[in-house]
Amino acid sequence: MVTKSPYMSDSEHDSWVSNNLTVSYCGFTIKPKRDFGTGFWDSKHRCMIQAGWVVTAHGCNPVPGGLWAHNLEGASNLIDCMIASGYRAGEDFKSMVKLEGDPDMFHALVRISKYKAA
After folding, report:
1. Distances (CA, A) of 30 to 45, 46, 68
2. Tens digit of each residue's pLDDT (9 = 90 or more) over 2-41
């Protein structure tokens, strides 16, 4: 049993647990992140984090630095930051993400945004 993340609503957590939610947004896909192992310690909320959301394009994480989000709003914010810094979803695996994006600008946008990524 996965402990509910303090960053997710009850319904979002239920969707994560049942793995029944995949969201398409601006050509990218937001899916439950399932490769935490035993999780990691969140000192702010004093609990183990075992649930999150990852942005994918054609089965891979195209987000600079491999960032993931605590909730769906944070994941869509990652996509917004990618688009604002010049990244686009490619049409197939070979052109998964067009590399004209600026990773420094992306990370600056993520740092100043409301939703923090991990």
Report:
1. 24, 26, 10
2. 566 777 777 777 777 676 678 899 889 998 887 776 777 8
Please check whether residue 69 lies inside any domain of the structure: yes
Total domains present in the chain = 1
What b-and-e string marks burial along 76-93, b requiring 16 or more CB atoms within 10 Å of the CB?
Answer: bbbbbbbbebebbbbeee
Which residue type sits at 81? C
Among 6, 106, 104, CA closest to 55: 106
Interhelix angle 72-84/103-112, nearest 10 degrees: 140
Considering the entire predicted model, what is its pTM?
Answer: 0.75
Looking at residue 77, the DSSP 8-state letter turns out to be: H
